[in-house]
Design a protein that fits this description.
heterodimer; A: about 600 residues; alpha+beta; eight-stranded antiparallel β-sheet; globular; B: about 375 residues; alpha/beta; TIM Barrel; Arc Repressor Mutant, subunit A; 2 domains; three-stranded antiparallel β-sheet; about 25% strand
């Protein structure tokens, strides 16, 4: 059992729905424990990236150590480990949770429990975390704490009568949260004398120190200068720095022991050598088994990313390399497209991961990008027996060489209020889902399970799901395996030339409608030019949809006298700028937006 | 020191009623301002003559608005001030814009005496119902009598402005307008494809959906019909929208397209002088106030880079049938224009949009339909 030192430690995370006040509560806890003065505090310290703040989600885990003098007269060390909050990062969430003994569940006193919260609550319960509910925003006129407490007891089966009722925003009852953490959440266990096992729950690259790993020591101890071994990669390093975490910085120390949370640096050049979920052990006295739960990063979604301005190819490569230093799940390799020039085929954990990378490239690295439709990895069994894995439709072999094709299938778990079950079933059916089952969590909430092709999910399934459930449904999916499927490659021809960047693979039953929608969308986005432009959607040589961009007949300024020159020149320059942003496909100028517009075809 | 040769533009921003398509700085019903405006104008003429060292004026253009609306004495005062404070060429082309229904024998006589030798009359169409639909305040008959009156007073350089592509205008109506102009044996025609600008009466009607722009097909049919008809009648096209008998091209406007220098006087008037383009405010009260404190208020003021000037030379010069001389521009701007645009040029020539004669290139008749797209390729 835990020793005296461990009895004074609490490791916990906060689980909350977006907007229910997770970050605000975290800020208050930091303030109360004197880690920060309000002046030092940038609002919501834990969400570091711009994108995180804007989207209200946490992408990278964060952690911070607080010291709290409790009413029992003892000083406690509280380690708050913040978790990312999206299905794409479920693995990262599970590793953060695995580093804790308890979770504070923040529930909005007016809105009650939301679906997304439940996913993480169940994940926490799976890892045997003690969950302490907290009712937030009790100062709002619409607060109904008693009902919400009842809801927590009914839905999750948690004792919630004594849940602290607080207002994080106005600093009401924050102390009761701290006291609750000490009383309800158990201290860590783990034997200091066992061989070292430390769980990496986050890691990122720093240009001065190399990779900084956030760790929770499960067993044993680790100290400055120790030789350590990554149990999954087998790589060994010497610890150059070790210590505790404080907001936006570190407190160096000599060692960390079982039950403690902190960081270490060891001249590690790349996060891939120290991934989330890795178990660090001692090189001289290694543990027998790594900690459970490690998973390799497997990209599930791929797309082409091209610089809008071809001369920025080198910049794009540099930026991707920099992002990869910090993101072990991001993969990329060079590819070329006839329409888009030089770019990269990139692999992502999921759609959100893809969007975040695109957004970071554009924002943090100031790049203008053109991206192609996302694809999954298809498995093609050729007539000669060869099996190829295809993540880029352009490389699909001739149909005559294909014996059969397989596509990745996932098990999708959708949690929803019962009133939307019909809508969701309809949606899943449209997306070629196979119903697996339904489970009532309570009278008004169910979990639906479907087997679905991944390529149906990666287009706009999230959006469709949200719009059909007013945002109440949550989705999680897990890779299940490959399944034979009647797939075809759909090509788009603009002015009789195939535009490689617009090709994609689709189920035969859906090819017609998607081809038609794409042709319609392209007709809207390609401006009229001096000649007529046919747009065709084809499977092989068979045309399944056709639209025409009519030729324009006139592009001339009737008047241009002394007073018009400056204004008209500006117009022409604008026209020229617009032209620069066009991609030349044969003799047709195609705006960049055209490539992007087909990514979101309304259903 | 050799004196600068310039064109002088004088803006009269008043009219009786704003035409529905007009987006020029022109204001109806501001009679109270006329006198103080003209005083300011005279003041500005003197200021500019001082500032720019009495330039040599080759052309004067009194435009508007409707300059013929205000008392002719004002025009005479303006032109007198020009003669006193500027070096005016003995063969100076001096144009005034007039609208039918505002001209009188007396006005024409004063114009003549003041040195006006060219009249530009706004006709637009020869069907009264179209004139009404455009918001014009005159009839075709008014136009005919204006021309007759002008000829009586020995004006022998007369232009008419006409417009095609008017909502609901038929091709036959356009043919009639072209034929009438030809039969009148005018010396010059400006022939514009109607452009509906946003902040105009037409612009609002289009937004509401009560009028629709002419189809491009019809617009171009009308345009090429006019080009062919005028050329056959001896009114030779010399610019995208302008036609003249030999020796009757508008020299004032030619100066714009050849990127010559000019000074603009009056509210909203633009100037191009010493590599700088600048313009007076269009706000009449502000204009008057500025001039009276000897500090005209500008709405824009830009120095042109070499690249700006080259771009302008291409985009203005290609409007002219005479085209642009690539080697001359190369020398003038110290660049190898030929190799810069060669590839694009080859393509445009093969598409029959541009024709080339030695070092001179110009738009073909087809090219004139796509002038913007072509210019964008070349700048």
């Amino acid at each position: 059992m835990g020793n005296e030192r461990q009895k004074r430690i609490r490791n916990f995370c906060i689980i909350a729905h977006i907007d229910h006040g997770k970050s605000t509560l975290a800020d208050r806890l930091l303030e109360m424990t004197g880690v920060l003065t309000s002046r030092e505090m940038e609002e919501q310290v834990l969400d570091n990236m711009d994108i995180e703040r804007e989207r209200g989600i946490t992408i990278k885990a964060q952690a911070v150590r607080m010291i709290y003098k409790a009413k029992d007269g003892n000083e406690y060390i509280l380690n708050l480990i913040d978790t990312p909050g999206h299905v794409d990062f479920n693995y990262e969430v599970s590793r953060s949770i695995a580093a804790c003994e308890g979770a504070v569940l923040v529930v909005d006193a007016s809105q009650g429990i939301e679906a997304q919260t439940l996913t993480n609550v169940y994940l926490a319960l799976e890892h045997n975390l003690e969950i302490m509910p907290v009712i937030n925003k009790i100062d709002l006129p619409s607060a109904r704490p008693d009902e919400v407490i009842q809801e927590i007891e009914d839905v999750i089966g948690l004792e919630a009568q004594d849940a602290p009722q607080i207002s994080a925003k106005n600093g009401i009852n924050i102390e009761s949260v701290l006291e609750g953490i000490i009383k309800k959440i158990p201290p860590p266990t783990g034997d200091e004398d066992e061989p070292l096992r430390a769980l990496v729950f986050d890691s990122f690259y720093d240009s001065y120190k190399g990779v900084i790993a956030y760790i929770r020591v499960m067993d044993g101890k680790v100290k400055l200068g120790d030789a350590i071994r990554m149990m999954h990669t087998g790589k060994e390093f010497l610890i150059t720095e070790i210590g505790y975490l404080r907001p936006g910085g570190f407190i160096q120390s000599d060692s960390l022991v079982a039950g403690e949370v902190g960081y270490l640096c060891a001249s590690i050049k790349n996060v891939r050598d120290c991934r989330v979920g890795e178990t660090i052990t001692s090189a001289s006295n290694p543990a027998k088994e790594p900690l459970p739960g490690y998973k390799k990063a497997v990209p599930m979604v791929f797309c082409g990313i091209y610089p809008a301005d071809g001369s920025k190819y080198g910049d794009l490569r540099d930026s991707l390399e920099k992002l990869q230093l910090n993101d072990a799940s991001l993969q990329f390799e060079p590819e070329t497209s006839k329409a888009l020039g030089f770019g990269f085929r990139c692999g992502f954990l999921g759609l959100l991961h893809m969007e975040i990378i695109q957004e970071r490239l554009e924002r943090e690295y100031n790049l203008d990008l053109v991206t192609t439709a996302p694809s999954v990895i298809y498995r093609i069994i050729k007539t000669n027996g060869e099996v190829i894995e295809l993540d880029n439709p352009t490389n699909m072999p001739e149909p005559t060489q294909i014996e059969r094709m397989e596509e990745p299938i996932v098990t999708a778990t959708i949690m929803t209020p019962t009133e939307y079950v019909g809508n969701i079933m309809e949606l899943c059916q449209e997306r070629r889902g196979t119903y697996l089952g339904m489970e009532y969590l309570e009278a008004t909430r169910v979990i639906l399970k479907y087997e679905m092709p991944l390529n149906e999910i990666i287009y706009d399934f999230f959006d469709a799901l949200k719009s059909r459930t007013k945002g109440y449904a949550s989705l999680d999916y897990e890779f299940k395996g490959y399944k034979e499927s009647n797939l075809v490659k759909l090509d788009i021809r603009i002015n009789n030339e195939v535009v490689d960047a617009l090709s994609f693979i689709v189920h035969a039953d859906k090819a017609y409608s998607r081809g038609r929608r794409m042709a319609e969308k392209l007709k809207e986005t390609i401006p009229r030019q001096m000649f007529e432009i046919p747009i065709q959607a084809c499977i092989g040589n068979k045309i399944i949809a056709r639209e025409t961009v009519k030729a324009y007949r006139k592009d001339v300024l009737a008047k241009c006298y002394g007073g018009d020159i400056t204004r008209k020149k500006k117009l022409l320059e604008k026209q020229k700028e617009g032209k620069k942003r066009m991609r030349q496909v044969g003799s047709v100028e195609v705006p960049q937006e055209a490539f992007m517009s087909v990514l979101k075809l309304d259903t | 020191m050799k004196q600068k040769r310039i064109g002088l533009y004088i803006h009269i921003p008043f009219c009786k009623q704003k035409c529905y398509y007009c987006d020029f700085p022109s204001y109806p019903g501001m009679e109270d301002y006329w006198e103080s405006y003209i005083d300011a104008l005279l003041q500005e003429l003197i200021l500019k003559a001082e500032e720019f060292q009495t330039p040599y004026v080759e052309t004067v253009f009194v435009g508007g608005g409707t300059p013929s609306l205000i008392p002719a004495a004002f025009i005479s005062k303006i032109l007198d001030t020009v003669y006193i404070h500027y070096n005016v060429a003995s063969d100076c082309e001096c144009t005034i814009e007039c609208n039918p229904g505002t001209l009188s024998e007396e006005k024409l006589k004063i114009y003549k005496d003041s040195g006006v030798n060219r009249l530009s009359i706004g006709l637009q169409a020869c069907q009264d119902e179209i004139l009404k639909a455009l918001g014009r305040i005159h009839t075709f008959e008014d136009f005919l009598s204006s021309v007759e009156l002008a000829r009586k007073h020995e004006f022998d350089n007369i232009n008419a402005d006409i417009i095609f592509g008017i909502p609901n205008q038929t091709f036959e109506q356009w043919q009639e307008t072209v034929a009438r102009i030809i039969s009148l044996d005018l010396d010059h025609v400006s022939c514009y494809s109607l452009l509906i600008e946003e902040d105009t009466v037409y612009g609002n009607m289009r937004k509401k959906g009560t009028i629709k722009e002419a189809e491009d097909e019809l617009d171009r049919k009308m345009y090429h019909y006019a080009v062919d008809s005028f050329n056959a009648a001896g009114l030779y096209q010399y610019e995208i929208s302008n036609f003249a008998k030999p020796h009757f091209r508008c020299r004032h406007n030619m100066n714009y397209w050849r990127r010559g220098e000019y000074l603009g006087v009056g509210a909203g008037a633009h100037s191009h002088y010493n590599g700088r383009r600048f313009a007076n405010t269009t706000d009449i009260a502000l204009y008057i106030k500025g001039v009276n404190s000897r500090k005209p208020v500008l709405s824009e003021d830009n120095y042109l880079s070499r690249e700006d000037r080259l771009e302008e030379s291409i985009f203005l010069g290609l409007r002219l049938n005479e085209g642009i001389d690539i080697s001359k521009l190369s020398r003038e701007f110290g660049t190898d224009l030929e190799s810069r645009i060669n590839k694009k040029l080859q393509k445009l020539i093969s598409q029959n949009l541009i024709e080339r004669n030695g070092t001179v290139i110009r738009l073909t008749e087809k090219g004139m339909d796509f002038a913007n797209a072509i210019i964008v390729e070349l700048i």
